[in-house]
Amino acid sequence: MSTPLNRKNAALPDSAPVRLVHLGLGAFHRAHQVWYTQKADANWGYASFTGRSAKMSDALTPQDGLYTLVTRSGDGDSPELISSLVEAQPAANVARLVELMADPQVAVVTLTITEAGYHLAADGSLDESNADVASDLAALASDSLEGSLELKTAAGKLVKGLAARKAAEADGIAIMSCDNIAENGPLTAGAVLGLAEKVDADLAAWIKETVTFPSTSIDRITPATEDSLIADVEAQTGFQDNAPVVTEPFASWIIEGEFPAGRPNWENAGVEFVSDIEQFERRKLWLLNGSHSLMAYLGQLRGHATVADAINDSNVRSHVEALWDEAANHLTAEGLNVPGYRRSLIERFENPRIVHNLAQIAIDGATKQRMRAVPILKAELAAGRPGNGAALSIAAWIAYVLGTEEVRDTRASEIEEAKLLDDAPLALLGVLDSELASNEVISTHIKKLVTELS
């Protein structure tokens, strides 16, 4: 009989104090930031909040936050007990988030809330037309940042927490996005400040003076956990773990920015600190994430279910390589080693034991493609080239959306409205980027590709 997983049964000492807070308690956070922190510094504990559902906090709380991280390669599985997540909270517990952010010993807040969770307009500003943003603006303005804890957005919750930190006269804090968004530090600052400036000018000024927003480039393929993993972990470790995570051997974390209240010694675990992260962000976003999105749509259109299936289709692979060729034209900074990075991606994609489902990657494509394929296409067009690889990726998304009855996307209402119009492909291109949609040459080209793919 297996043993329930908790600190007592695992013979672990008391947990580390909470010095890190996280929004977005998912598999990637636990395979990346928590894992790096455990490797780097045992004196830093994470309190992590779910994105929406309380399912993960409900699973982790009886386990004292413990879980097994299974690194899966062609040579087999390597299970590792992770103990740096010391508190798992549901998203609805905003009171605990506010309490922690006011605590002077809490030094860093990290985020994995997906691109859509920042509620940004096309120009990178806070999307005040979004219903959740409007709700939070009204809630925060009506109570002068006191009272109501019924907040829907990450930015709203952060503003509430920062107001409490200011009132407690605590030092500054770092808020660091770990999502796949270019310039994620400035964009996070824009979302938080955009909301704060609407509700409290003094708070916004304090945030500008004392809060930092480091930028990051993160990388580790982490598929959704399947039920079979629970049985595998029980057989391998003897513990009944209801929240294991599976990941690949490769991991990378690059950071640019300051931490006014301190941070773990992440460099001890291999984290790179750089003075200019822009090209590293783009390398990850355009090569890894960009090809993931291309495979998610083109692969499913060709009947594939996983990344490994898609990359082993010569047709799909040729389009991935074409997209990479175009991206590489604009990735020229010293130290990027784009050819080596491309080779490593092929090896990672071909890993037969990492079951990375294309349907999972395909979620929220309207936001993802706006930040992945669209910038590559625009850069190629500006250089006088047609950008056929990026155009194909955009066309694959449009063809996929047109052929999918129910699209899983935070911008689903815009997508469904576009699908009803006479020229639905053009309207869907406009959902991604109005400038591209108004370019008759490129819009005609993409519509032709959509027809060929459908």
UniProtKB/TrEMBL annotation:
Q: Tell me the GO molecular function terms.
A: mannitol-1-phosphate 5-dehydrogenase activity
InterPro entries, per the entry: 6-PGluconate_DH-like_C_sf, 6PGD_dom2, Mannitol_DH, Mannitol_DH/Oxidoreductase, Mannitol_DH_C, Mannitol_DH_N, NAD(P)-bd_dom_sf
Name the reaction it catalyses.
D-mannitol 1-phosphate + NAD(+) = beta-D-fructose 6-phosphate + NADH + H(+)
Q: Which Pfam families match?
A: Mannitol_dh, Mannitol_dh_C
This chain's protein is named Oxidoreductase
Mannitol dehydrogenase C-terminal domain location? 276-442
- Chain ranges of the Mannitol dehydrogenase N-terminal domain: 19-267
Q: Which UniProt keywords apply?
A: Oxidoreductase
Gene3D superfamilies xrefs: N-(1-d-carboxylethyl)-l-norvaline Dehydrogenase, domain 2 (1.10.1040.10), NAD(P)-binding Rossmann-like Domain (3.40.50.720)
Q: What's the superkingdom here?
A: Bacteria
Q: Does the keyword Nuclease apply?
A: no
